Amino acid sequence: MAATATRTEQLTQVLDALALNLGGDVNGSAVVSLDGIVLASRFSGAVNVDRLSAIAATTLGVSRRVAKDLSMGVTHETIVQCDNGLFIVIPVEDKCLLAVSLRKGGNLGMVRLEAGYCADRISGILG
Amino acid sequence: MTSTVRPILGDFMSTECFRYLRMGAEDIAGRALIVAAGKSRGHSLADVLKGLKPDEDAVITAKLSGVLGADGTRLCLVNQIKQTELGYEVHITESACASGVVADAPICAFTLGVFIGAMEVVTGKRIYGQEVSCVGFGNDECFYNLEILV
User: Fold this and answer.
1) Selecting from 3.30.565.10, 3.30.450.30, 3.30.1360.120, 3.40.50.300, what CATH number does the domain A14-126 have?
2) Model confidence over A14-57: pLDDT tens digits?
């Protein structure tokens, strides 16, 4: 009988599925605690994932402050659009966040759809 | 070590100024920024923690007490670091983060980050941490649960 996957392994499987379903649009992704601690990641070794996770959580934190100060309701996502791609941060309830780096020209609509599925699975894993 | 640019004031400042820095930054950007700063400080203790084994609770406690406590930078009093099934329990009092603060939730983001970073150095593994109790929240001690991510 196969050993039960750890929580990190389960989260990594979710990230792998995200990359697979988006057909090469994803440069990397991570599940990050709201305190900025990386819980699972699929970024290349060239990326400092600890640092990026802290930045992703801070990005979400700033977005939430904007929403609060402008009375704009709940933050559903934060997108950083750059010349060579997109960086998307999606809160998973009040448990953690999903950070996704998308290549230039990637299908944002599909990412949003798949990320929503991922968020549900991540929420289930974290309980 | 006393900085040459502060020959009179030395290396210490009031927790009141620290509180404004920390809570001001947290108010704008959330806790992650502060936890990351704390982790960075914890990682900087690599020389002090070099060679310690992950199950040497008492030695780890003594080393961190020395560097962070009354004879160190005075961040907090490190009372106990205890290995658990999933990682470590950290028990501290007099945390600089909780000084002069009454909060409706645990507020030791920087101190938590320091212990996450320090124990990442000891274990060589990523660690996730949560504040279970906090003096600023009305508890008798600040207590963190650190979980080694595998």
Assistant:
1) 3.30.450.30
2) 999 999 999 889 999 999 999 999 999 999 999 999 999 999 99
Pick the residue from chain B with its C-alpha nearest to A54: B32
Report yes or no on B121 lying in a domain.
Answer: yes
Say whether residue A51 is in contact with chain B using an 8 A CB cutoff. yes
The model's pLDDT over B11-24, given as tens digits with 9 standing for 90+, comes to 999 999 999 999 99
Q: Parallel, antiparallel, or unpaired for β B87-93 and B77-83?
A: antiparallel
**Domain tally for chain B?**
1
The verdict on B86 touching A (C-beta cutoff 8 Å) is no
pLDDT in tens, A65-82: 999 999 999 999 999 999
Tell me how far apart the alpha carbons of residues B137 and B144 are, in angstroms, rounded to a whole number.
Answer: 13
3-state secondary structure of A2: coil
Model-level ipTM above the cut of 0.85: yes
CA distance B30 to A57: 8
